[in-house]
Specification:
159 residues; alpha/beta; Rossmann fold; four-stranded parallel β-sheet; 6 helices; 43% helix; globular
Length: 159
């Protein structure tokens, strides 16, 4: 099962989600990330945070939703602007959900305050991903309506 984490720039939140999901997921589930208007680079604080958490940063880069290696089964938008965009038609009838997370790339203040914004985004995404992976995935794999209900619930209930 392929999960796409989608945001506009594909430099922070979607990268954090992709790497975290791949670190925690069972072998038959994998994540990718993309942006509708990718920045072309992964934010260095995202990479630093992932490394600090013991999550590999190898191979992660900012990319467009026009160049995905696989067609996703599930699309999770992590920013409001991506949630409102029409996904490319080639994605087809995928299960879609929105897990809005504030963009740490727009955080201002001291280095400590900016790092805290990145950490907050990561903690929210990780909690949601852990809840996703705690679902009865083998059952939900073939029940997209129930999977959507559960994914929407995770996005609404968890921080």
């Amino acid at each position: 099962m392929n999960v796409l984490f989608l945001c506009t720039g594909n430099s922070c939140r979607s990268i954090l989600a992709e790497a975290t999901f791949n670190h925690l997921a069972p072998t038959d589930w994998s994540a990718m990330s993309a942006g509708s208007h990718p920045t072309g680079q992964v934010h260095p604080r995202s990479l630093t945070l992932l490394a600090r958490e013991g999550i590999s940063t190898d191979g992660y880069f900012s990319k467009s939703w026009d160049n995905l290696p696989h067609t996703p089964d599930v699309v999770v938008t992590v920013c409001a602007s991506a949630a409102g965009e029409i996904c490319p038609a080639y994605l087809g009838p995928v299960t879609r959900t929105h897990w809005g997370v504030e963009d740490p790339a727009h955080a201002t203040g001291t280095d400590e305050e900016i790092d805290k914004a990145f950490d907050t985004a990561y903690r929210i995404l990780r909690a949601r991903i852990e809840a996703f992976l705690a679902l009865p995935l083998s059952d939900l794999k073939n029940d997209s309506a129930h999977l959507k209900i559960e994914l929407d619930r995770i996005g609404e209930l968890l921080p």
